[in-house]
Design goal:
The structure is a homodimer. Chain A is an alpha/beta fold. A 5-stranded mixed β-sheet of chain A has the order 2-1-3-4-5. In chain A, strand 3, helix 3 and strand 4 form a beta-alpha-beta unit. In chain A, helix 1 runs parallel beside helix 4. The radius of gyration of chain A is 14 Å and the shape is globular. At the A-B interface, helix 2 and helix 3 of A face helix 2 and helix 3 of B.
Amino acid sequence: MRNDEEYMRLAIANAKKAADSDEVPVGCVIIDKNGDVISEAYNTGEHGKNAMEHAEVKAMREAAEKLGQPRLWDCEMYVTLEPCAMCAAGIAMMRIKRVIFGAENEKGGAVINGVKYFESATCNHKPEVTSGVLKNECGEILSTFFKNKR
Amino acid sequence: MRNDEEYMRLAIANAKKAADSDEVPVGCVIIDKNGDVISEAYNTGEHGKNAMEHAEVKAMREAAEKLGQPRLWDCEMYVTLEPCAMCAAGIAMMRIKRVIFGAENEKGGAVINGVKYFESATCNHKPEVTSGVLKNECGEILSTFFKNKR
Protein backbone atom coordinates (compact mmCIF):
# COMPACT_ATOMS: atom_id res chain seq x y z
CA MET A 1 0.00 0.00 0.00
CA ARG A 2 1.27 3.45 -0.91
CA ASN A 3 1.00 6.42 1.43
CA ASP A 4 -1.43 9.34 1.43
CA GLU A 5 0.86 11.66 -0.54
CA GLU A 6 1.40 9.14 -3.29
CA TYR A 7 -2.33 8.61 -3.81
CA MET A 8 -2.88 12.37 -3.67
CA ARG A 9 -0.30 12.84 -6.43
CA LEU A 10 -2.44 10.60 -8.59
CA ALA A 11 -5.49 12.73 -7.75
CA ILE A 12 -3.45 15.82 -8.68
CA ALA A 13 -2.55 14.25 -12.04
CA ASN A 14 -6.29 13.91 -12.66
CA ALA A 15 -6.91 17.54 -11.65
CA LYS A 16 -4.34 18.58 -14.25
CA LYS A 17 -6.27 16.68 -16.91
CA ALA A 18 -9.35 18.72 -15.96
CA ALA A 19 -7.40 21.97 -16.37
CA ASP A 20 -6.23 20.79 -19.80
CA SER A 21 -9.92 20.40 -20.75
CA ASP A 22 -10.79 23.87 -19.42
CA GLU A 23 -12.65 22.33 -16.46
CA VAL A 24 -12.28 23.41 -12.82
CA PRO A 25 -9.22 21.31 -11.86
CA VAL A 26 -10.31 18.84 -9.21
CA GLY A 27 -9.15 15.22 -9.31
CA CYS A 28 -10.15 12.16 -7.34
CA VAL A 29 -8.90 8.63 -6.76
CA ILE A 30 -10.60 5.76 -4.91
CA ILE A 31 -8.72 2.80 -3.46
CA ASP A 32 -10.10 -0.49 -2.17
CA LYS A 33 -9.23 -2.17 1.10
CA ASN A 34 -6.03 -3.59 -0.40
CA GLY A 35 -4.83 -0.15 -1.42
CA ASP A 36 -5.43 -0.82 -5.09
CA VAL A 37 -6.68 2.15 -7.14
CA ILE A 38 -10.13 1.18 -8.43
CA SER A 39 -11.16 4.47 -10.02
CA GLU A 40 -9.81 7.89 -10.88
CA ALA A 41 -11.71 10.83 -12.29
CA TYR A 42 -11.70 14.56 -12.82
CA ASN A 43 -14.34 17.23 -12.90
CA THR A 44 -16.23 17.67 -16.19
CA GLY A 45 -19.08 19.82 -14.92
CA GLU A 46 -18.80 22.55 -17.54
CA HIS A 47 -18.20 20.79 -20.81
CA GLY A 48 -19.51 17.37 -19.84
CA LYS A 49 -23.08 16.21 -19.73
CA ASN A 50 -24.10 18.15 -16.63
CA ALA A 51 -22.84 20.39 -13.84
CA MET A 52 -23.07 17.57 -11.29
CA GLU A 53 -20.20 15.67 -12.93
CA HIS A 54 -17.78 16.32 -10.08
CA ALA A 55 -14.64 14.22 -9.80
CA GLU A 56 -15.89 12.53 -6.60
CA VAL A 57 -19.28 11.51 -8.02
CA LYS A 58 -17.67 10.16 -11.18
CA ALA A 59 -15.04 8.20 -9.24
CA MET A 60 -17.65 6.72 -6.87
CA ARG A 61 -19.90 5.72 -9.77
CA GLU A 62 -17.02 4.05 -11.58
CA ALA A 63 -15.83 2.28 -8.41
CA ALA A 64 -19.32 0.92 -7.70
CA GLU A 65 -19.61 -0.33 -11.26
CA LYS A 66 -16.21 -1.98 -11.03
CA LEU A 67 -16.99 -3.67 -7.71
CA GLY A 68 -20.55 -4.51 -8.85
CA GLN A 69 -22.09 -3.25 -5.62
CA PRO A 70 -24.16 -0.16 -4.73
CA ARG A 71 -21.93 0.96 -1.83
CA LEU A 72 -18.19 1.34 -1.25
CA TRP A 73 -17.61 -0.01 2.26
CA ASP A 74 -13.85 -0.21 3.07
CA CYS A 75 -12.92 2.13 0.22
CA GLU A 76 -10.98 5.37 0.70
CA MET A 77 -11.22 8.53 -1.40
CA TYR A 78 -8.40 10.96 -2.23
CA VAL A 79 -9.58 14.26 -3.65
CA THR A 80 -7.64 17.46 -4.32
CA LEU A 81 -10.35 19.81 -3.01
CA GLU A 82 -12.66 19.70 0.01
CA PRO A 83 -15.91 18.05 -1.21
CA CYS A 84 -19.06 20.15 -1.71
CA ALA A 85 -22.42 19.28 -0.07
CA MET A 86 -23.52 17.12 -3.01
CA CYS A 87 -20.33 15.08 -2.93
CA ALA A 88 -20.15 14.91 0.87
CA ALA A 89 -23.71 13.56 1.07
CA GLY A 90 -22.86 11.15 -1.77
CA ILE A 91 -19.79 9.96 0.15
CA ALA A 92 -21.95 9.25 3.21
CA MET A 93 -24.53 7.47 1.04
CA MET A 94 -21.85 5.32 -0.56
CA ARG A 95 -20.37 4.49 2.88
CA ILE A 96 -16.84 5.53 1.95
CA LYS A 97 -14.64 4.61 4.92
CA ARG A 98 -12.15 7.47 4.78
CA VAL A 99 -11.87 10.75 2.87
CA ILE A 100 -8.52 12.47 2.34
CA PHE A 101 -8.57 15.91 0.74
CA GLY A 102 -5.95 18.48 -0.18
CA ALA A 103 -7.05 22.11 -0.41
CA GLU A 104 -9.75 23.60 1.76
CA ASN A 105 -12.79 25.15 0.00
CA GLU A 106 -14.11 27.99 2.12
CA LYS A 107 -16.73 29.04 -0.43
CA GLY A 108 -18.14 25.71 -1.50
CA GLY A 109 -16.84 23.02 0.85
CA ALA A 110 -19.15 21.02 3.11
CA VAL A 111 -16.75 18.99 5.26
CA ILE A 112 -14.90 21.50 7.45
CA ASN A 113 -16.74 24.49 5.92
CA GLY A 114 -20.35 25.28 5.01
CA VAL A 115 -22.93 22.81 6.28
CA LYS A 116 -20.20 20.47 7.65
CA TYR A 117 -22.32 17.62 6.43
CA PHE A 118 -20.64 14.74 8.24
CA GLU A 119 -21.23 16.47 11.56
CA SER A 120 -24.91 17.20 10.81
CA ALA A 121 -27.71 15.34 12.60
CA THR A 122 -29.17 13.77 9.45
CA CYS A 123 -25.85 12.32 8.21
CA ASN A 124 -26.01 8.56 8.82
CA HIS A 125 -22.42 7.65 7.95
CA LYS A 126 -19.42 9.67 9.06
CA PRO A 127 -16.18 8.73 7.29
CA GLU A 128 -12.78 9.31 8.83
CA VAL A 129 -11.48 12.61 7.42
CA THR A 130 -7.89 13.73 6.78
CA SER A 131 -7.43 17.23 5.39
CA GLY A 132 -4.51 19.22 4.03
CA VAL A 133 -2.55 16.46 2.25
CA LEU A 134 -0.39 18.27 -0.35
CA LYS A 135 -2.74 21.21 0.11
CA ASN A 136 -0.38 23.75 -1.48
CA GLU A 137 -0.01 21.79 -4.71
CA CYS A 138 -3.74 21.02 -4.81
CA GLY A 139 -4.63 24.66 -4.22
CA GLU A 140 -2.09 26.05 -6.69
CA ILE A 141 -3.62 24.15 -9.60
CA LEU A 142 -6.91 25.84 -8.82
CA SER A 143 -5.53 29.34 -8.25
CA THR A 144 -3.46 29.15 -11.46
CA PHE A 145 -6.55 28.01 -13.37
CA PHE A 146 -8.71 30.86 -12.13
CA LYS A 147 -5.91 33.42 -12.57
CA ASN A 148 -5.62 32.42 -16.24
CA LYS A 149 -9.41 32.78 -16.60
CA ARG A 150 -9.33 36.45 -15.63
CA MET B 1 -49.50 24.01 -18.75
CA ARG B 2 -50.88 21.57 -16.18
CA ASN B 3 -51.03 22.37 -12.48
CA ASP B 4 -48.81 21.24 -9.61
CA GLU B 5 -51.03 18.32 -8.63
CA GLU B 6 -51.09 16.92 -12.13
CA TYR B 7 -47.31 16.95 -12.44
CA MET B 8 -47.03 15.45 -8.95
CA ARG B 9 -49.31 12.60 -10.01
CA LEU B 10 -46.81 11.80 -12.72
CA ALA B 11 -44.02 11.82 -10.11
CA ILE B 12 -46.16 9.47 -7.98
CA ALA B 13 -46.59 7.12 -10.92
CA ASN B 14 -42.79 6.95 -11.10
CA ALA B 15 -42.53 6.30 -7.35
CA LYS B 16 -44.86 3.34 -7.82
CA LYS B 17 -42.52 1.93 -10.46
CA ALA B 18 -39.71 2.09 -7.89
CA ALA B 19 -41.83 0.14 -5.39
CA ASP B 20 -42.53 -2.48 -8.04
CA SER B 21 -38.75 -2.90 -8.40
CA ASP B 22 -38.26 -3.18 -4.63
CA GLU B 23 -36.65 0.26 -4.52
CA VAL B 24 -37.48 3.02 -2.02
CA PRO B 25 -40.46 4.60 -3.81
CA VAL B 26 -39.50 8.13 -4.76
CA GLY B 27 -40.40 9.56 -8.15
CA CYS B 28 -39.40 12.76 -9.94
CA VAL B 29 -40.47 14.75 -12.99
CA ILE B 30 -38.79 17.78 -14.56
CA ILE B 31 -40.60 20.25 -16.78
CA ASP B 32 -39.16 22.94 -19.02
CA LYS B 33 -40.25 26.56 -19.22
CA ASN B 34 -43.18 25.64 -21.48
CA GLY B 35 -44.48 23.12 -18.96
CA ASP B 36 -43.44 20.15 -21.08
CA VAL B 37 -42.19 17.12 -19.19
CA ILE B 38 -38.56 16.62 -20.25
CA SER B 39 -37.59 13.82 -17.88
CA GLU B 40 -39.07 11.44 -15.33
CA ALA B 41 -37.24 9.00 -13.10
CA TYR B 42 -37.44 6.89 -9.99
CA ASN B 43 -34.98 5.82 -7.35
CA THR B 44 -32.78 2.81 -8.19
CA GLY B 45 -30.25 3.18 -5.38
CA GLU B 46 -30.42 -0.39 -4.11
CA HIS B 47 -30.54 -2.58 -7.17
CA GLY B 48 -29.13 -0.14 -9.68
CA LYS B 49 -25.52 0.73 -10.27
CA ASN B 50 -24.97 2.74 -7.09
CA ALA B 51 -26.68 4.16 -4.01
CA MET B 52 -26.53 7.69 -5.41
CA GLU B 53 -29.07 6.89 -8.12
CA HIS B 54 -31.82 8.98 -6.57
CA ALA B 55 -34.82 9.96 -8.67
CA GLU B 56 -33.82 13.63 -8.65
CA VAL B 57 -30.23 13.04 -9.81
CA LYS B 58 -31.39 10.71 -12.57
CA ALA B 59 -34.08 13.12 -13.76
CA MET B 60 -31.65 16.07 -13.78
CA ARG B 61 -29.03 14.09 -15.68
CA GLU B 62 -31.58 13.02 -18.27
CA ALA B 63 -32.99 16.54 -18.61
CA ALA B 64 -29.50 18.01 -19.14
CA GLU B 65 -28.74 15.41 -21.78
CA LYS B 66 -32.03 16.11 -23.51
CA LEU B 67 -31.50 19.87 -23.52
CA GLY B 68 -27.80 19.49 -24.37
CA GLN B 69 -26.69 21.90 -21.68
CA PRO B 70 -24.95 21.49 -18.29
CA ARG B 71 -27.56 23.43 -16.27
CA LEU B 72 -31.36 23.53 -16.09
CA TRP B 73 -32.23 27.23 -15.85
CA ASP B 74 -36.02 27.78 -16.09
CA CYS B 75 -36.81 24.13 -15.34
CA GLU B 76 -38.99 22.99 -12.44
CA MET B 77 -38.74 19.74 -10.50
CA TYR B 78 -41.61 17.74 -9.00
CA VAL B 79 -40.51 15.08 -6.51
CA THR B 80 -42.58 12.94 -4.16
CA LEU B 81 -40.20 13.27 -1.18
CA GLU B 82 -38.22 16.16 0.26
CA PRO B 83 -34.76 16.02 -1.38
CA CYS B 84 -31.72 14.86 0.63
CA ALA B 85 -28.51 16.93 0.92
CA MET B 86 -26.95 15.34 -2.15
CA CYS B 87 -29.99 16.10 -4.30
CA ALA B 88 -30.57 19.57 -2.83
CA ALA B 89 -26.98 20.57 -3.56
CA GLY B 90 -27.34 19.05 -7.03
CA ILE B 91 -30.52 21.08 -7.61
CA ALA B 92 -28.65 24.28 -6.68
CA MET B 93 -25.73 23.30 -8.92
CA MET B 94 -28.08 22.64 -11.84
CA ARG B 95 -29.85 25.97 -11.25
CA ILE B 96 -33.34 24.46 -11.12
CA LYS B 97 -35.78 27.36 -10.89
CA ARG B 98 -38.43 25.81 -8.66
CA VAL B 99 -38.72 22.63 -6.59
CA ILE B 100 -42.09 21.17 -5.65
CA PHE B 101 -42.11 18.23 -3.24
CA GLY B 102 -44.78 16.09 -1.63
CA ALA B 103 -43.91 14.35 1.64
CA GLU B 104 -41.56 15.82 4.20
CA ASN B 105 -38.47 13.77 5.16
CA GLU B 106 -37.57 14.50 8.76
CA LYS B 107 -34.76 11.94 8.87
CA GLY B 108 -33.03 12.53 5.59
CA GLY B 109 -34.39 15.73 4.05
CA ALA B 110 -32.22 18.79 3.50
CA VAL B 111 -34.68 21.46 2.35
CA ILE B 112 -36.91 22.19 5.35
CA ASN B 113 -35.14 19.60 7.56
CA GLY B 114 -31.53 18.69 8.27
CA VAL B 115 -28.94 21.10 6.89
CA LYS B 116 -31.63 23.17 5.10
CA TYR B 117 -29.19 23.48 2.24
CA PHE B 118 -30.86 26.27 0.25
CA GLU B 119 -30.75 28.51 3.31
CA SER B 120 -27.09 27.77 4.05
CA ALA B 121 -24.37 30.38 3.48
CA THR B 122 -22.48 28.36 0.86
CA CYS B 123 -25.52 27.67 -1.33
CA ASN B 124 -25.19 29.88 -4.41
CA HIS B 125 -28.59 29.26 -6.01
CA LYS B 126 -31.82 29.16 -4.04
CA PRO B 127 -34.78 27.77 -6.00
CA GLU B 128 -38.36 28.67 -5.20
CA VAL B 129 -39.72 25.85 -2.99
CA THR B 130 -43.29 24.55 -2.67
CA SER B 131 -43.84 21.73 -0.18
CA GLY B 132 -46.72 19.42 0.69
CA VAL B 133 -48.27 18.92 -2.76
CA LEU B 134 -50.25 15.64 -2.52
CA LYS B 135 -48.18 14.91 0.58
CA ASN B 136 -50.52 12.21 1.90
CA GLU B 137 -50.40 10.17 -1.29
CA CYS B 138 -46.63 10.67 -1.61
CA GLY B 139 -46.08 9.64 2.00
CA GLU B 140 -48.42 6.65 1.90
CA ILE B 141 -46.46 4.99 -0.91
CA LEU B 142 -43.38 5.16 1.30
CA SER B 143 -45.06 4.03 4.52
CA THR B 144 -46.75 1.10 2.76
CA PHE B 145 -43.41 0.11 1.21
CA PHE B 146 -41.59 0.10 4.55
CA LYS B 147 -44.51 -1.63 6.34
CA ASN B 148 -44.32 -4.47 3.81
CA LYS B 149 -40.55 -4.70 4.38
CA ARG B 150 -40.97 -5.49 8.08
